[in-house]
Amino acid sequence: MRFRGKGVSAPSAVGAVLAMVAVPVVLGSSAEAAPGCKVEYTITNQWDTGFGATVTVTNLGDPISGGWTLSWDFSGNQQVQQGWNGTFGQQGTRVTVRDAGWNGSLGTGATVSPGFNGSHSGTNEKPAVFTLNGTTCTGSTVPTTTTSPTTTTTTPGPGGPKADNPYAGAAVYVNPEWSAKATAEPGGARIANQPTGVWLDRIAAIEGTSTSRGLRGHLDEALRQAAGKPLVVQLVIYNLPGRDCAALASNGELKADELPRYRAEYIDPIATILADPKYAALRVVTVIEIDSLPNLVTNVTPRPTATPQCDVMKANGNYVAGVGYALAKFGAIPNVYNYIDAGHHGWLGWDDNLGPSAALFAQAAKSSGSTLANVHGFIANTANYGALKEPYFTVNDSVGGASVRTSKWVDWNRYVDELSYAQAFRQEAIRAGFPAEVGMLIDTSRNGWGGTARPSGPGPSTTVDAYVNGGRTDRRIHLGNWCNQAGAGLGERPKAAPEAGIDAYVWIKPPGESDGASKEIPNTEGKGFDRMCDPAYTGNPRNQNNMSGALPDAPLSGHWFSAQFQELLKNAYPAL
Ligand code: BGC
């Protein structure tokens, strides 16, 4: 009975372009003078009976001058039909490619990219092992260069193993568009250099428009900001069919049954861009589909919080299949790190929600050809307002023999803040089968709760409610409120590895962007009017019929909301 946070088979048309999936072949490399090579085998397009592929070979060893021979074995019935940038031959499953003469010399670090069109039926597995002049290409974890000899990266190098924590030792991409809006606000320059999430919230966001850059535009700018050093780019993948099933403010462009479009027009084009070797040195963090899977746990029949649209999305399986597809596609790209949205403590922190959520996430991560290994971690509190740490009470306190859990505010929740929730969720996910290395992110963009209303000590020990209400820094009317919350401030600034199990504090929701309009605003973005964004609204079962606590005069979700930005500056905690 609890609240929300904020919170097919694709038609295999002949010639349909699938994502390019780069497969790094990586093992140790030997000393400098020894031979060595790295291969990325990329399927550039695929249709039911055929495919095209590019095989990018980097010579990591001594210069090769007398020509080269590359070979591999197909695991299925693939047959090379026509090749380029090399002379192709095939006997049985074994393919041999010799240089084309003009590209027979390969200096140390030099790259050559033979490609071919082939036929196949059934699955089209990528070959696992390649040899160059008889040496198995094991890749390298030492700094390598891909396209330009001047771009050197530290570990993990392009094609190297994923970093355990991608934020460790890395800068994070500052979105120049958000930064400009922040700078234009009085006092905003103080935070304009903070990294924020790039929301790919519709198909058109991939290409961009005349006024906002597309994904390549962001990644090119990210390369510039990286200047050869490790840099994380944070992308929000947010366009599932039937999006935002328990609310209206962020309903999206794809209808409940449009999973094929989600795959072909949204995920595949993004994956193609992310797999471009040009971007191999960036660490791309993908935040996967805010609110979707949690909604399938809490906002479905027979819960009193069920919505018809969430029942539809549970029944048709398109959230689960869509998330699995995104994880599989992005997880195959060596420098992409998937983090699944895990709601927040005021949503999944109850016993009957936590375990089922971790189990559902595992189910999704094993769907659509994905495996649990495609999940690098989870993110808590995205675009929400839950306090990071409640300093003046813990869930273990009691007043006059009454546990804090019996208070109206906590209402039997197992957690009272996002840090304790995130750390516990991580353990739950590992119990559900996820790798022990998974890490958590916490969105601290708007959970600061500073300013004059912030308590300076515990509440009175008269009743448990007085104790909790007097001491809690989260000043929302109800924990289930999520839209443009009055009184909120900026939270902890983005930071790598701040606490055990936490990969980073991040600002995924860009401060100043609305959660939803406070009244009906006609639009072409598919966004509805959710009364939780109307300050006059008296609530629904998901916030136990409390006032919404929303700021007035808010624009559509994602649009700039100056008054909110100003309030976030004013109530920042830590203060600016
Ligand atoms: C909106 C998106 C927007 C994002 C970030 C979401 O609530 O639906 O359109 O990009 O917030 O502000």
List the helices and strands and how they pair.
Layout: E1 21-24, E2 37-46, E3 50-59, E4 69-73, E5 79-84, E6 87-91, E7 94-98, E8 111-112, E9 115-119, E10 130-132, E11 135-136, E12 171-172, H1 176-184, E13 198-200, H2 204-207, H3 215-226, E14 231-237, H4 259-274, E15 283-288, H5 292-298, H6 308-316, H7 318-331, E16 336-341, H8 345-348, H9 351-365, E17 377-380, E18 398-399, E19 402-403, H10 418-431, E20 439-443, H11 464-471, E21 495-499, E22 502-506, H12 562-570
Parallel strand pairs: 12-14, 13-14, 14-15, 15-16, 16-17, 17-20, 20-22
Antiparallel strand pairs: 1-2, 2-3, 3-8, 3-9, 4-7, 4-10, 5-9, 6-7, 10-11, 18-19, 21-22
Helix pairs in contact: 4-7, 5-9, 7-9, 9-10
This protein binds beta-D-glucopyranose.
Biased composition (Low complexity): 134-156
Pfam families: CBM_2, Glyco_hydro_6
Binding site for substrate: 199, 201, 344, 347, 384, 482, 509, 513
Verbal overview:
This protein is α/β, with parallel strands linked by helices and about 575 residues long. It has 2 domains: about 35-135, Immunoglobulin-like (Sandwich); about 170-515 and about 520-570, 1, 4-beta cellobiohydrolase (TIM Barrel), CATH 3.20.20.40. Helices cover about 20% and strands about 20% of the residues. The chain contains 12 helices and 22 strands. The chain has helices at about 175-185, 205, 215-225, 260-275, 290-300, 310-315, 320-330, 345-350, 350-365, 420-430, 465-470, 560-570, and strands at about 20-25, 35-45, 50-60, 70-75, 80-85, 85-90, 95-100, 110, 115-120, 130, 135, 170, 200, 230-235, 285-290, 335-340, 375-380, 400, 400-405, 440-445, 495-500, 500-505. The strands form 4 sheets. Strands 12, 13, 14, 15, 16, 17, 20, 21 and 22 form a 9-stranded mixed beta sheet that branches. A hairpin with a 2-residue loop joins strand 18 (about 400) and strand 19. Helix 4 runs parallel beside helix 7 (about 320-330), helix 5 crosses helix 9 and helix 9 (about 350-365) packs across helix 10 (about 420-430). The longest helix is centred in the middle third of the chain and has 16 residues, at about 260-275. It is elongated. The two termini are about 40 Å apart. Residues about 1-35 and about 140-155 have low confidence and may be disordered. The protein binds beta-D-glucopyranose. The site of beta-D-glucopyranose (BGC) has 9 residues, from loops.
